[in-house]
Design a protein that fits this description.
The chain has 102 residues and is an all-alpha fold. It has five helices and no strands. α1 packs across α2 and α1 packs across α5. 16% of the residues are buried.
């Protein structure tokens, strides 16, 4: 696992790459615009199984420090429906910084 810097730009680039790969592999989409305001539900139309796949990708990249299932478990239904890429980027950055400070 390569060292990971805990800044929004790097994490956004990582996450954008993961989502692009997921969307292309699962749905054949290869031209989706993804930014901090992109909604997982409304914009990307991801299903729960896609989030499971994304959780695996995040864990592969960041290790045990980033647990998507645990993050989602702390949200209520409406928050999950409205979840944006930016929300996830902020969570990942916070987890990485907590580990660095740790």
């Amino acid at each position: 696992m390569t060292p990971v810097t805990a800044d929004e730009g790097t994490v956004l680039a990582d996450l954008t790459g993961m989502l692009a790969r997921l969307l292309e592999d699962e749905y054949g989409l290869d031209d989706v615009e993804i930014d901090m305001g992109t909604s997982f539900n409304r914009d990307l139309e991801l299903e729960s199984i896609d989030l499971v796949t994304l959780a695996g990708m995040l864990q592969e990249r960041y290790g045990e420090r980033v647990n998507l299932a645990e993050f989602l478990a702390g949200l209520d239904f409406d928050e999950i429906i409205e979840l944006t890429v930016g929300d996830l980027v902020e969570y990942v950055v916070a987890q990485l910084r907590a580990t660095e400070a740790g």
